[in-house]
Write a structure and sequence with these properties.
The protein has 15 helices and six strands. The chain is mostly helical. Strands 1-4-5 form a three-stranded antiparallel sheet. Helix 2 (about 25-55) packs antiparallel against helix 11 and helix 14 runs antiparallel to helix 15 (about 485-505). The mean pLDDT is about 75.
């Protein structure tokens, strides 16, 4: 059985604590270091969040999405022209439309096809790099803390509190200038962003392209020179371009109001912010200061309280270790759940963007049924994921309560435990930890069962039925519709590959037997047995739906038709 504290560790802890009672200066310096680290971490977090969340630093990111919309507009123009070009009779109009199509195709090529927002990515890189520089500046200054910290062993309570406060204040006062310089560099780099300039230039270029495209009007030809169909076509085409042009004008006007943010607008760098941070941390390190003052005033710490605190520290380490073991599996499945939901969300969005035209009524029914099934799976998984997250939250509350109950129990029995430790007896401690470890084992088993239920009954069930749909319904649809549903087929198959990759990341493999493979009751479940020429008894005729496993555990067996 895992011991929270071994016999020799108890002796070592007591001895080490007695030694530390006499090291007032080191304790105080460490205390100051901790407070500076806490305040610096809070300030770094504040600066980071402030820079990332301020609208001024994100105002140009919309350029990327505007260019994507602009590209879609061009592609819409190209498709529109392609659908109507052969019906044009006016030679002049035909030549102009061909020119418009070529300009649109060139514009599509110039905009590119990046999946991620490079402006946002560069902004994050600039901010993260700057934060690391600030962090490094703090670290270098903190390396000299011990040399600067000089504590009089006869220091009083009032003067010790004043010393700590002044030391921490002077540290951040000395760091104000270098931190402001780094922050200013971050803001300058954000304003002079390469991707921002690139997309701003692209915006201007596309504005000019659209202005050129919009020069063609129906009135230029005269109503007698164009058929009504040609006039309507030209009106519709210019309307598409005009909508894109209006979006560019709106974005251009919006960006014209953008201004560079100044360092003094970041509140966490002000002296008032530093002072407030110190005051907030006073309640954190005041208890530690009082503990040091006990050493100063009494030259020793109450052994009972010290023993309880140290016992709790070791208990907390053990508790965190057990939690890591318990939560490792849950974390994998929570990540898997989020990933699968994201993939389904992407799939649903892709389906909604498709404009399929079916050539048969039966094909349309199958296609619509496939889409409806996917929508339903997405909504079902969202509900199940929410339920799963709530269960995880309840388990976390229970885990924290077990730790709290153990702390109360140790506090109540601390005096007896200390006396036993002095006498070399550990039975009382063993009884406590035995009870604690049994309780945690029950939680571990409960969490595992919850994970398996969610994994098998929800995630894998939906993925398996999706695979069945791919195997049967999609094939039937393709037989009926052919190239008409090629986009749908590619979208569904790409989603299936993404699902399999997500499972592979956590070592979940697919069980998919082939024809003539030997039936294995551990891996396969026969839903039908029939005699069929060419198949030996006990061999597999067909895999109806796949199974899943995490070796050596079988999660779901593959459903097969076997030969008898």
């Amino acid at each position: 059985m895992k011991r929270i504290i071994k016999d020799n560790e108890i002796e070592k802890i007591v001895l080490e604590y007695k030694v530390k009672m006499h090291i007032i200066e080191d304790l105080t310096c460490n205390l100051i270091r901790i407070q500076i680290e806490n305040i610096a971490s809070r300030m770094l977090l504040g600066i980071n969040q402030d820079l990332k969340n301020k609208d001024e630093t994100k105002s140009f990111e919309g350029l990327y999405y505007l260019m994507k919309d602009t590209k879609n507009m061009y592609e819409k123009c190209i498709r529109f022209i392609g659908d109507h070009e052969i019906r044009l009779e006016n030679k002049q109009l035909t030549d102009i439309v061909i020119g418009i199509k070529e300009m649109a195709e060139n514009a599509v090529f110039s905009i590119g096809n990046g999946k991620d927002n490079p402006i946002a990515y560069e902004r994050m890189v600039i901010i993260s790099g700057g934060i690391l520089k600030i962090k490094e500046a703090y670290r270098k200054k903190m390396d000299m803390l011990h040399e600067a910290c000089l504590i009089d062993s006869h220091i009083t309570k009032a003067s010790l509190l004043e010393y700590i406060h002044n030391f921490v204040s002077s540290f951040f006062e000395g760091m104000a200038k270098p931190v402001n310089e780094i922050a200013n560099n971050i803001l300058n780099d954000l304003w002079e962003s390469i991707e921002k300039k690139k997309y701003t230039k692209l915006l201007i270029e596309q504005k000019k392209v659209m202005e050129s495209l919009m020069m063609v009007k129906v009135d230029d030809f005269g109503k007698k020179n164009l058929t009504q169909q040609e006039a309507d076509f030209l009106e519709a085409l210019t309307s598409i371009i005009h909508d894109g042009y209006e979006q560019i004008l709106m974005k251009e006007e919006q960006l014209s109001r953008a201004v560079q943010i100044e360092v003094n607008e970041i509140g966490f760098l002000s002296q008032e912010a530093v002072k407030l941070a110190i005051e907030k941390n006073m309640s954190v390190y005041k208890d530690n200061v009082d503990a040091i003052l006990k050493y100063v005033d009494e030259n020793h710490q109450n052994s009972h309280e010290a023993f309880i605190n140290l016992m709790y520290d070791e208990l907390y380490k053990t508790h965190r270790c057990l939690l890591m073991k318990i939560k490792k599996e849950s974390t994998n499945y929570q990540i898997l759940s989020c990933h699968i939901l994201e993939l389904f969300e992407k799939l649903v969005a892709g389906l909604q963007e498709l404009q399929l035209k079916y050539k048969t009524v039966e094909g349309q029914k199958i296609g619509e049924a496939i889409c409806d099934t996917i929508y339903m799976k997405y909504e079902t998984l969202k509900e199940k994921d929410t339920e799963y997250q709530l269960i995880k939250k309840d388990v976390s509350i229970l885990e924290d309560k077990k730790l709290f109950d153990m702390r109360i129990l140790i506090a109540e029995k601390g005096e007896d435990l200390l006396e036993d430790a002095i006498d070399g007896l550990t039975e009382g401690l063993l009884d406590i930890q035995t009870h604690y470890l049994k309780e945690m084992a029950i939680i571990e088993e409960t969490v595992h069962n919850q994970n398996m239920v969610y994994l098998k009954n929800d995630i894998l069930f939906e993925l398996r039925t999706y695979e069945e749909m791919m195997r049967h319904s999609l094939k039937k649809l393709m037989d009926l519709e052919g190239e008409k549903v090629k986009e749908l087929s590619l979208l569904l198959m790409e989603a299936q590959r993404s699902f399999m990759n997500a499972l592979d990341r956590i070592q979940i493999t697919v069980i998919e037997p082939r024809e003539h493979d030997q039936f294995d009751g551990k891996l396969h479940e026969a839903i039908l047995a029939e005699a069929l020429e060419g198949f030996e008894k006990g061999s597999i005729i067909k895999c109806q739906s796949v199974g899943y496993q995490i070796e050596p555990n079988i999660l779901l067996r593959a459903m097969v038709i076997a030969a008898k």
